[in-house]
Amino acid sequence: MGSARESACDALVSWPMTRRLLACLWCGREIVESESGRRRRYCRQSCRQRAYEHRNSVKGTGIPEDSVILSAQEAADLADRWFAARCAAEDIATAIEEGAGTDELHELSVTLMKLTREAERLR
Ligand SMILES: [Zn+2]
Fold this sequence. Notes:
The chain is built from four helices and no strands. By secondary structure, the chain is an all-alpha fold. The chain has two domains: 69 residues, no CATH class; 54 residues. It starts with a helix and ends with a helix. Zinc ion binds next to loops.
């Protein structure tokens, strides 16, 4: 039991670094590895294009090329997606406190996974 818990913690610690490599540099969505095995930096052609336009638009401004610039609306939407995920996490905590059954907890956790996946994207 103790070792199972340890391995879960290890997974949590190493997870963000692994994950970071698989996120689109423009939109933050997960990148599906191509069959050739070549590591892609963008999830789709339009993201590659937007990133190229972004690099051109910050040239000579002193703003780093790799900076992530969100509009106020995009930042608000991102905050909203994370807030929804937090609410779903709180729902699970409440359900556990109230002794909810496995089926309900499963349903709530599926919702949480869906919402956190949505929250991963930047735009
Ligand atoms: Zn993308």
